[in-house]
Known about the structure:
Blueprint: E1 2-6, E2 18-24, H1 29-44, E3 47-51, H2 53-58, E4 67-69, E5 81-86, H3 88-98, E6 105-109, E7 119-120, H4 124-133, E8 137-141, E9 144-150, E10 153-160, E11 163-168, E12 175-181, E13 184-191, E14 193-197, H5 205-208, E15 221-226, E16 236-238, E17 244-248, E18 256-260, E19 264-268, E20 273-278, E21 283-287, H6 293-301, H7 310-315
Parallel strand pairs: 2-3, 2-5, 3-4, 5-6, 6-7
Antiparallel strand pairs: 1-8, 8-21, 9-10, 9-20, 11-14, 11-18, 12-13, 12-17, 14-15, 15-16, 17-20, 18-19
Amino acid sequence: MSTTTSIQGSPVSPAEHRRVLLVAHPRRPEAAHVAIDVVDQLRDAGIEVVMALDEAQALGLEGRPGVAIADADHPAAGCELVCVLGGDGTILRGAEVSRGSDAPLLGVNLGHVGFLAEAEREDISATVEHIVNRSYTVEERMTLEVTAHVNGDPVYRSWALNEVTVEKANRERMIEVVAEIDGRPLTTWGCDGVVVATPTGSTAYAFSAGGPVVWPDVEALLMVPISAHALFARPLVVGPNSHLALEVVPDTLGSGALWCDGRRAVDLPPGARIEVVRSGTPVRLARLSTSPFTDRLVAKFDLNIHGWRGQARREGRPVGRA
């Protein structure tokens, strides 16, 4: 689910001290070149760039004019925006520091698909101009809260923007999982794993596992089994306030692992119970364009729309073949 807030044209006080947190892939050479451009352009506009110490060192930006080192515990504190240079993995890392702060996240794609990104590498100058002028809108995207229990005791808590997955730990063995919705058992899957995703994550792992694409403004949660050995193994779309749970069968064929956004993980013994609900803390994404989600799908997945005659229909021209 997404809600949109416009801050386009917000006035900037001449005495205002503006700061932007810059997050970049530390091992991507292109990220260093783009980061230097961003730092220099923002510095010229009177905006200070804040970076984590290890990233500033890795990218050769430590000590560069216009760059300050972020607070290790609260890197986004005092920043108006978190600008991320990289692919979806780097953007998810940026979401970890922006979530819960007032700073929205703006992604510049340096990877492949970059579905979470708002701009591309070649648009960097225009992107910086949007930042300087505060010419963007902000969308709030639903996130997930997850708790893992062992013998009834909570042993792990985390969150996810895209998805929570329970997966087999051993490649050669399946995992057996009981799916539960709103306190009632649904079915048992012998499978490679189960994905619980947000609408934002519907185009990520859940999509690869055969789940549907869900528009960001839809309020829903997805549950998608991965390579399940069962007749009932279709993806499920449930209400946003549903309480989802997955239990690793005690006599299962193998142990499991819990992953959040493919970044944070914990091992799961047989008998573990994983509960997933909608979080009350969203991730805020800065948007530069008002183009519909359909256009983003077409662009990011390079979909074939050859033969579409929408413009002709809108103009009242004949659309049949000659």
